[in-house]
Amino acid sequence: MTRFLTRRIISAIIVLVLMVAALFALQQFSPADPARAMVGDRATPEAIAAARENLGLDDPFLVRLGSYLQDVTTGDFQTSYRTKQPVASDLRATLPATLELLLFAAMFALTGGILLGLLTARRGLGVFFVRAIMLAGASVPIFLLGLLFLLLFYDQWGLLPGSGRSSHAVPDGPTGFYTLDSIVHLDPSAFWDSFLHLLLPAIALAAGPSVGIGRSFGSALNAALASDYVKTARLKGLGWIGIVFKHAFRNCLNSALAMAGLMMGIMLGTVAIIEQIFAWPGVGNYLSVSIRATDVPAICGVAIVFGSIFIVLNALVDVLQTIADPRISLDSTD
Predict the structure, then answer these.
(1) Closest by alpha carbon to 310, among 282, 271, 281?
(2) Measured between alpha carbons, how far is 146 from 228 in angstroms, rounded to an integer?
(3) Which CATH superfamily is domain 94-332 in?
(4) Which residues belong to any copy of the ABC transmembrane type-1 domain (predicted)?
(5) Is the confidence at residue 334, as pLDDT, over 50?
(6) Domain segments of the chain as ranges
(7) Rounded to two decimals, what is the model's pTM?
């Protein structure tokens, strides 16, 4: 276990350093001038030159890269051109909303994917109906699905709220997750209101990934049900539910976890779209505004945070796979 975790930590650090270095290199090709953004468009050439010297923009590339890497390790992502605030401060204000949305979307995606996989493993006409739903879910673009949810559940039927995180006074802290903070402060009405606000964006974000997880898990489950040890279990009189949950489920969970790790990358890439549609005040919304304003430090700061989340989650998935499937050895995992 120690050897496995050490390899994962070292590889994650290497990938993070390369990612930060690549983002820094891309900043050099940006049309935005950090010195001009700092002093304003009407500044004199002398003021711009002084700002460039103060920011170290005249230093050699490797010196500036080393300084940037050092700043990132301390949580300093430079200053936003748009808000004039440290990017780290902006992220602290918006990241909890995005993480809460991603957490619920991941739970919905994994749960829905496993249920879809179980349903496709059954025989009968219902399987074709489930597969048709999966095909439709995989084909509908995420922005169209979000707009459809708004039209039906919010505008037409009025069942669920369509924007924001809450319409209730949510207690402050300690996590920034409205649902968890409501539980900590023993406020069930605030929890329920926050949960209802989460449902539409989280389900829209999880729809596509749940189909991918369901396909992967269903294929593995069908292969397991056709194996010899399952046939032996049937001859012993064991029913379908007993066969699946006593013999096949754990062996097939590895494929669902592997696909879930890949699907998290998709959710991180599409969360900005969902936050725009549902007016969710998270990092995705912050990123969208920053892109329109060519706010390069903010864009790179979000990219570093999202990249770090994806790397950590994939390392966690590797650990969970070894726990779910004892046939995978920690010391032999690449």
Answers:
(1) 271
(2) 44
(3) MetI-like (1.10.3720.10)
(4) 95-321
(5) no
(6) 2-73, 94-332
(7) 0.87
